[in-house]
Design brief:
This protein has 601 residues and is α+β, with helices and mostly antiparallel strands. It has 15 helices and 23 strands. The chain has an eight-stranded mixed sheet, covered by helices on one side. Strand 19 and strand 20 form a beta hairpin.
């Protein structure tokens, strides 16, 4: 029997469809991995096997896919078994009390009322509060106890990791783990040394002076091994030292529960900015400057390559089949080679930037589509397919070019459920907050330029009053739901437009509590100031309105600041459809709920 300690990360259930089920693992040694999918009666439905791909001396990755002629049924649960080198995997710590004695998963429901989607974002290891990603484990356990419906898929809408701000102890651990797993040290351009050899105190200077990232991330990652280690350490406890660093003790203790949850629920991850750096590809000036610096290009390539082999491979397995761009990425990384300039085109990194980000022909696509009989779920890539329509090189972009709109938001079947790294509605603010945000920069001297031109998240706004947003609404149609994160606040809004009606639900972050936000949340709906909350955003053809929650613990929230994850479900009554969003936080506390009727009349 293969012990879980020999697994660097996983098993993680990735893309699940009626004729195909994929599971991802990272192993210490090469092996052939086989999978067998069974129904509730133990009858074989799908099976398959695959060889690991050697990314480093002690890092061997595999996405094993079970296929067959017997279709799985929407909304039903199935079990699966894994063997590694012919030996079964020891799953004792990965199964649930009251559940099957094998690993399992559930397909999305065939109807709206049977659809249960969980999402979250923004998980920083050293932020305060308990890691809300463990709530997925609670949900699955509760489903086996008959207390609630089982989650069918979990989508991280971005910032699962923070590559620009690890703590000093985590940064040292990433260098150690990355070098050990890969078995080599990558020499970085313009530095002539490896990432683990850069002194801690010089990281910020390297970012601004060498890579030309003027926002100055204090502890930016550079090496392929660092990025890989960051993703792997966020998914499993196996590669962690015992004991872990003191400031990471709470974070590492949550990982066994997260590992169990991801072994029993389909998991899809998309990137936002912090998977590379804050703020990645935000303006045309940023793209031209950083991509023109050899170290800047290597940083982007290393971050994307790590995301590709850990997450994109499972999101879209078809892109990694023979002859596809993902297969070429794996081929170039096979055998322990750092990403080279030849891999940049496969990862979608352009040579030049003009009025739009145009990935090279045949590059990986980072968005995905999950089509069920009830919903058409799309995750968006708002980073590598942006448009820069304004003459000012520092102007805010359109998050999707016209080509990207046609490619990512078209031909919907069923109710569109859009997963966008940043939600369509920016965070609600009181007038008092807006006054200080607008005017504080006047007194900050040089920092004003950084705040207004290169400031974090400046280029992530969907600009609801813009012509671009009107084109987005045209693409979405009569009724839709947007799930997002990024803001470190959770809230809800509605959009009523000529085209139809939509619900916007933000769940953020999984571990991003701060004292100031919690102070406002405790007050309830409004600040104790004489001004009301943010007014409704309106145009001649569209009205966006922020919502307060149903009463929770005696309060109604304008926004929610506790570490949380969100759960989307639907209620139907004849022709009416209502989107229901539940914000879950500490298990002993009542959830926060919003209901939005998707009525087009």
């Amino acid at each position: 029997m293969v012990e879980l300690s020999s697994v660097v990360a996983g098993p993680i259930v990735r893309r699940v469809e009626p004729r195909s089920v994929s599971v991802w693992l990272a192993l210490l040694a090469p092996a052939r991995v086989a999978i067998r999918v069974e129904d509730a009666d133990g009858q074989l439905c799908l099976e398959g096997s695959a060889e690991t791909v050697s990314i480093g001396e002690q890092l061997h990755l595999v996405l094993v896919t079970a296929q067959g002629t017997k279709e799985l049924s929407w909304g039903e649960s199935y079990c699966y078994e894994l063997t590694i080198g012919g030996e079964p995997l020891n799953i004792e710590t990965l199964v649930y009390k009251g559940g099957p004695d094998k690993l399992s998963f559930t397909l999305p429901g065939a109807t709206l009322t049977d659809t249960h989607v969980v999402h979250g974002s923004c998980r920083h290891p050293t932020n305060r509060g308990d890691d809300a990603m463990t709530l997925l484990d609670d949900m699955i356990a509760a489903s086996f106890a008959g207390q609630e419906a089982r989650p069918q898929l979990f989508v991280c809408s971005g910032d699962l990791v923070y590559a620009d701000s690890p703590s000093p102890s985590l940064l040292a651990l990433l260098g150690e783990v990355g070098d050990r797993l890969l078995g080599y040290r990558e020499i970085l351009p313009d530095l002539n040394c490896s990432a683990s050899e850069i002194p801690l105190g010089e990281r910020a200077a390297v970012a601004s002076d060498v890579a030309k990232i003027y926002a100055g991330p204090p502890r930016q990652l550079w090496g392929f091994g660092e990025y890989l280690a960051l993703h792997l350490l966020a998914l499993s406890q196996s590669a962690w030292p015992n004991p872990p660093p003191e400031d990471l003790l709470r974070y590492s203790r949550s990982l066994p529960r997260i590992q169990r949850a991801l072994a029993n629920c389909a998991f899809y991850a998309v990137f936002d900015d912090h998977e590379i750096t804050d703020d990645w590809f935000m303006t045309r000036a940023w793209c031209e400057r950083v991509l023109g610096a050899p170290l800047g290009r290597r940083m982007v390539a290393n971050g994307l390559a790590a995301f590709a082999v850990v997450h994109a491979w499972g999101n879209t397995p078809a892109q990694f089949e023979e002859g596809q761009p993902g297969a070429r990425v794996l081929s170039q990384l096979r055998g322990g080679h750092p990403p080279s300039s030849s891999i940049e085109a496969e990862l979608g990194i352009p040579r030049t930037v003009s009025s739009k980000m145009q990935p090279p022909t045949g590059a990986l696509r980072w968005y995905l589509r999950i089509k069920t009989p009830a919903v058409d779920l799309r995750t968006l890539d708002t980073r590598t397919m942006r448009a820069f329509p304004h003459a000012d090189e520092h102007a805010m972009p359109d998050l999707l070019s016209d080509d990207a709109l046609a490619e990512q938001l078209s031909a919907f079947e069923g109710i569109p459920v859009i997963v966008a790294p940043s939600p369509f509605a920016p965070p609600p603010r009181t007038r008092t907050e807006r006054f200080f945000v607008r005017n504080l920069a006047l007194f900050q001297g040089k920092s004003r330029l950084i705040r207004e031109v290169y400031g974090p998240d400046r280029g992530d706004d969907w600009q609801p009053t813009s012509e671009f947003f009107a084109r987005v609404l045209d693409a979405l149609g009569e009724r839709w739901v947007c799930l997002g994160g990024d803001t470190h606040l959770a809230y809800a809004a509605t959009v009523h437009a000529e085209q139809g009606v939509g619900a916007i639900f933000c769940s953020s972050g999984m571990q991003r509590e701060t004292t100031m936000r919690l102070m406002r949340q405790r007050i309830g709906f409004r600040y104790p100031w004489p001004w009301p909350g943010q007014p409704t955003t309106s145009t001649p053809t569209m009205k966006m309105r922020y919502l307060v929650s149903e009463p929770t613990n005696g309060k109604r929230y304008e926004y929610f600041s506790r570490n949380n994850i969100g759960r989307l479900s639907f209620e139907t009554n004849e022709q009416d459809v209502c989107a229901v969003h539940t914000l879950c936080w500490q298990k002993r506390e009542a959830p926060v709920r919003h209901r939005v009727p998707l009525q087009t009349s």
